[in-house]
Amino acid sequence: MIAAMIQASTTTADIMKAGLMEEIFSERTLQATGPFMALSFGILLLVLAEIVPGLQLLRKLIFIATLGVAGWCAWKTIGAPEAWVFEDTYVANSTTGWWTMLFLAATFIAWLFGQRYYKAESALEGEHDLLMMSACAGMVLMAGSRDLLVFFVGLELLSVPLYTLSAFQRSRRESVEAGLKYFVLGAFAAATYLFGSALVYAGTGTLTFKAINPADLGGPLVIAGAALIAASLFFKVSVFPFHMWVPDVYQGAPAPVTTFMATGTKAAAFAFLVPAAAALLPYESKHLAAVIALVTMAVGNFGALVQTDLKRLLAYSGVAHAGTLLLAIAALQGEPGPDAAMRAVLFYMAAYVFTAGGAFGLVTMLESQTGRAVTIDSIKGLAAKRPGIAAALALFMLSLGGIPATGGFLGKYLVFSLAVRSDLLVVALIGIVLSVVALAYYLRVIVALYMQPEMDGKPVPTQARALSGLVAFACAVMVLALGLVPAWFLDSLR
Amino acid sequence: MLADYVPILLLVGVALGFALLNNALSELFGRKRKNIGKADAYECGMEPRGSARIRLSIHFYLIAVLFILFDVEAVFLFLWAVSAEALRAQDMAMLVLYEIGVFVFVLVLALAYVWRKGGLEWDR
Amino acid sequence: MTVPSEHLLILAGILFAVGAAGFFLRRNVIVVLMCIELMLNAANLSFLAASRMHTLKAGALGPALEGPIFAIFVIVIAAVEAAVGLALVIALYRNRQSVNLEDVSDLKD
Predict the structure, then answer these.
(1) Residue C28 belongs to a domain with what CATH number?
(2) How many structural domains is chain B composed of?
(3) Which residue, A348, A85, A144, A132, is CA-closest to A253?
(4) Within-domain flag for B24
(5) Which of A142, A153, A315, C36 is least surrounded by CB atoms within 10 angstroms?
């Protein structure tokens, strides 16, 4: 049947525009898809490096060069006129350009912290880099897609490598367990997403956001479909009640992968959630979304209070941050509109990528140095022996907690003011109270760093790691820059 | 509305009836001479009786997974093949060529990777 | 005789529900994978049903192709997920000599 239908459509020549060739090879298309093309090319080169014996030495060079070229391509789309390509399924503008830069940064941070982390698996580092770059390409595709099919391809390009990466230390029980849990739930979310998009397609007759007729949105099929799609995206960004997997997977997965997941995946899913919510969710869903946001913040913050493992603590903190961001999604249904929500989410996520990236990165470093899980106990007294590392970690905690002068504060400010402008004053107030609760566990980490003596039997590693220290320093600089001089970034978004 | 499904019901009935009738007829009129050769599976194949839960070599898993991955990719070739003629008719032959060239190149690269990593060797 | 597309959508919904129920009730990883596969195929069926619905609708410009194309992408990605999932199951079995989800509980609060 499919073949017959395709035959029927292609013989009706008017569907195929004469300018298809010119369109595909036009400069506009190349510019819009540049970052994704660069990453795809990099993936092929990395595969080639695994095949041709001599090229293996160039692997790291290829990785860095690919990220660089993709970053350059993304930089060119910032400030350029908005370009819709491939029949309005993919868009490139300043926002997607910045999102791409953010994904590249998240990938680079996780990759740098992952150097010298793997011991038993060091022979498979080629595959590790390859999978990481595929996931990065998937994120770029997700952020630019304005179509349910294109987004799905991006989502799977991100998720499938991440399932594998989570279980990368295949002889370690926890790693395989994390991978399996993530996979089983992720595949369930993917199936939910697919059934949801099928229902939306049945109700509207199209998969492209631009082509959806607003009159169709009230139908029962579309509402059910949008709810299923929202549920699957909530899974990806770890929003209540789909957050259960987060602490387990973050704890069990190799630390560089956790760094990558915590920053990149969340950013990519939110990059699509904003336009998807603007296109599909009805106005009435605003209050439901706000309530879910509050519950998520509560679950994350109260869950984190009792954690001792630092990865688990940061995982619950990530759940709480997802709740805060969902508040921006709820607010976009109101007066401020999707563009303001997109700016707030992008800024919040930018601060979060560098903050959480740095924090998880330092956990990665400590974990690979001591060979043990990093707990509150094991970082006691770190400030005395490694003042630089402790200061950076403390700064990240303050930024996660939303203390002024950090990027985290400004992100929270943007989101909450958005909520207030959208008549969600009470919700915003409860959210602020919950953020204060969160300070309790962030300060607990800082107290452990600075005011408690080193535990017997859990010595703090003394030798420095230049590369990790440098990346942590760069992340700290970015966090402060976003907090103190945010104007250059916010201005370029307008 | 449900009357629309009567033909399907009829089809099920005819199929069942045909199978049952033939079995009954051969039971009634057939000559019954048993020997080991006749009771065996035809010509070749696995033993028809016994436990289904036998252990298979893990090699089969790798081969099967590789097969299914490359096999399923072929589904895109059908899409390409069906629309190739129409595209060519509109002076887009080069596009047709580029598309399939890139696609096959990526697949070949994947195959080369599998080969290089020893995924195609039976005894390792 | 024609089967209305709505019936196909209902069938797809039932298949999806069966898959989801199995996903939550069964504890064997392999069976869980099969349930996910069932859900994916339910999505495929509803894509095709929806496509047919829009094609047969009065005033349609031509065949609605997004549905079948999406279904093909789903088939491919289902294969990819099966490959990764089975690899994970094998790694799991090597670690713990079990493919039961209840035995996979090292990580918890």
Answers:
(1) 1.10.287.3510
(2) 2
(3) A132
(4) yes
(5) A153
Cβ contacts of A110 within 8 Å, gap of 6 or more:
A132, A256, A257, A259, A260, A263, A264, A357, A360, A361
Q: Which residues of C touch B79 (CB under 8 A)?
A: 69, 72
Strand partners, A85: A90
Q: B87–A10: do the CB atoms touch at under 8 Å?
A: yes
Q: Per-residue pLDDT for chain A (494 aa), expressed as one digit of tens each?
A: 444 444 444 443 444 455 667 777 788 888 889 999 999 999 999 999 999 988 888 999 999 999 999 999 999 998 888 888 888 899 998 899 999 999 999 999 999 998 888 888 888 888 999 999 999 999 999 999 999 999 999 999 999 999 999 999 988 888 999 999 999 999 999 999 999 999 999 999 889 998 888 888 888 899 999 999 999 999 989 898 888 899 999 999 999 999 999 999 999 999 999 998 888 888 778 888 999 999 999 999 999 999 889 999 999 999 999 999 999 988 888 777 788 888 899 999 999 999 999 999 999 988 888 888 888 888 888 888 888 889 999 999 999 998 888 888 999 999 999 899 888 888 889 999 998 889 989 999 999 888 888 777 777 777 778 888 899 999 999 999 988 888 888 887 76
- B30 — phi, psi (to 5°)? -70, 155
Task: Name the residue of chain C whose CA is nearest to A201's CA.
Answer: C50
Asked if residue B123 belongs to a domain, the reply is: no
- Domain span at residue B18 reads 2-39
What tokens were used for A108?
């680079």
User: Which of C25, C95, C99 should be substituted to probe chain A, the one whose Cβ sees the most A Cβ atoms within 10 Å?
Assistant: C95
Q: Is residue B25 part of a domain?
A: yes
Q: How many whole angstroms separate alpha carbon A4 and alpha carbon A123?
A: 49
- Distance (Å, whole) CA A404 – CA A399: 8
Domain boundaries, chain A: 32-282, 283-494
Residue B50 lies in a domain: no
Contact between A142 and A35 under an 8 Å Cβ cutoff? The reply is no
How many structural domains compose chain C?
Answer: 1
CA A104 to CA A66: how far, in whole Å? Answer: 10
Between B4, B65, B72, which is nearest C3 by CB? B4
Q: Give me the domain span that covers residue C45.
A: 5-98
C63: in domain: yes
Question: Could you tell me which residues of chain B have a Cβ less than 8 Å from any Cβ in chain C?
Answer: 1, 4-5, 7, 58, 61, 65, 68-69, 71-73, 75-76, 79
Contact A9 C109 (CB under 8 A): no
Token pair listed for A203? 């109700």
ipTM of the complex in this document = 0.96
Examine residue C107 and state whether it is found in any structural domain, yes or no.
Answer: no
By three-state DSSP, how is residue A320 classified? helix
Contact A191/C19, CB-based, under 8 Å? yes
